[in-house]
Amino acid sequence: MLSSLISTLQGSPWLWIFVLLASPFLGTWLLSNVNARRSRNGEPPLIPYTVPWLGHGFFVAKDITGFGTWARKRYPHQDVLTAVVAGTHMYIVFDPKLAAIIYRRPKYFTFDPLALLSAKVFGAPQHDLDIIAIGTHGVARAPGYQDDGRRVHFDLHQLFPMLLEGPNLATMISKFMNALTADLNNEFPKDQDASGEWVTLDICDFVKKRMTLASITSLFGSHLRKIWPRIYEDFWEFDEVVQLLLLDLPHVLLPTAAARRKKMLNRLLHWREEACKHKSFEEIQEEDPDWDKYWGARLVRMSHSVLLKNGISVEGQEVFSLGILWGQNSNAIPVGIWMVVQSILDSDLHRRIRSEVLPHRNSDGTFDMNGLVTNTLLKSMFLEALRFSVASPSLRVVMETTQVSNYTFHKGSRVLIPGRELQMEKRVWSPNNEVPDALEFWAERFLDMDKGDNGDAERAAEAREANAQYADTDILKTKTKTAGTADRRRPKTSTDAISLPSSTTSKTIRDRMLSLRPFGGGVTLCPGRHVAMYKEIATLAILLSHFEIEVDEKALGTTGRPQPRTCTVGAMAPDRKLIVRMRRR
Ligand code: HEM
């Protein structure tokens, strides 16, 4: 057989060329298959690959969520795997208990390089990147690097929770609700001839636009919308290219993406110039209002102040504004859309939500928000919307070679915790088919009356550890007039966005909470999670109490039910329209 192969090769130079070209791939495949069958340096089992050095790099860069799903399907019983990704090893952790251990050891598994990468992705100039890199763990040092003690990411990280909770949160939510209500009143005017007439529209698009504009007002003040009439379109056009920008390629290879980012940054710089015409940065800082029509929320201003103190340029400060604008909108809004969509698709759920919402409506049409966010059905629905529609791939860099359970994680490697896979795990979310399948949306999934403890307690302890890091920092003490004690800044455990509804005590459900990872975990657990929860629940309450909304069954028959668009990172928007008839009640 071998001799006939050799004689065939001798007769055909093209075959030789093919064999020569294919041999590195074949060799890599054979070698990686051999390696996959034995433990190398105690690492988790290797996923065989074909392309030398690159391994699964292209797949990961193109669709990290899809890569997690593929790996899970192929190796359904492995708790951790090793993939080769552009010359480095990446450990994919499917076991929620191991994931929790990793989140809780930030010294060994750092988020720092991702913070630096996001500054780059949103367009920070090199001068600012050099400052942000100071003291950042897990990144290569440029020649001449000097540590002068500046810690931009750490300073911001300390600031976020206080600015996104307590009185600051309350102000942002009230501005959000006021803007949303005003826009809805504009679009569906009360007491006019057309009032009460049915309007046919795509509810996904409608909620997206209304939530985006109200969120922008709550963060950047109402003036921004006046000077930037296309902000809604520009923002979502920019959002479409963020995944491309994450590839960190030269601008010439991504001209559209680079141009859209530039447009966003220029507009934000213009916003700042306009705000300065109204009051200088020093004046507004001295005055320190919770929110200002031109300067927006304290969050934006205080973050700029920390960046300025660290020597970050004005352009770099607006890079941060862009990051916060994107972080808030691109994640919180699709989840908000899903909550509305699911409540419309299920008429029984729709009726029950309305009956839970209405007792919290005040006589002037506003809402008791604390009553809403502690309502057990609404909380369960919010958690289910996160589970169903958010795919957060948490990434960490291994700082020291470390033992995790039976595996050795080597220094310099990466860790990927694929949130989507944890949240879709059938064994966890619908064991023995006792409850609706993990792929289905089930608003009551987090409600149960059994007694017990565990996973949720673990998560609460994790959140407490994260919170302890922020308490009593100098920045908070000196700069904020309205934020008082640590107690005032912290939401009660039962209103924390990742806690279970207060009535749920079932051990099974509590254990599942370790597998709910939309907001990452550990010290960088998303500080904006409460903002997201309040805005999403507020939107649902306002829409369902002020409007009659009915599915257009004929259109639904043609398009089918919306599904999450799974090839995205973070919150996954519905993949199609949902046409409804809507009118003011
Ligand atoms: C449903 C909505 C949201 C989701 C799914 C989400 C998800 C995440 C995730 C996965 C992380 C990284 C955590 C880690 O790997 O440990 C993160 C960090 C962060 N998020 Fe969110 N987020 C949401 C809403 C928001 C909002 C509304 C804001 C601000 C208004 C925000 C601000 C931030 C910030 C500033 C960080 C960085 C934290 C740090 O470095 O210390 N997020 N978020």
From TrEMBL:
Pfam families: p450 (PF00067). The chain crosses the membrane at residues 12-31. Heme binds at C526. CDD domains: CYP7_CYP8-like. PROSITE patterns: CYTOCHROME_P450. Residues 494-506 have a biased composition (Polar residues). The keyword Membrane applies. SUPFAM superfamilies: Cytochrome P450 (SSF48264). Residues 471-506 are annotated as: Disordered. GO terms for molecular function: heme binding; iron ion binding; oxidoreductase activity, acting on paired donors, with incorporation or reduction of molecular oxygen; steroid hydroxylase activity. InterPro entries: CYP450_sterol_14alpha_dmase, Cyt_P450, Cyt_P450_CS, Cyt_P450_E_grp-IV, Cyt_P450_sf. Belongs to the cytochrome P450 family. This is Cytochrome P450. It comes from Helicocarpus griseus UAMH5409.
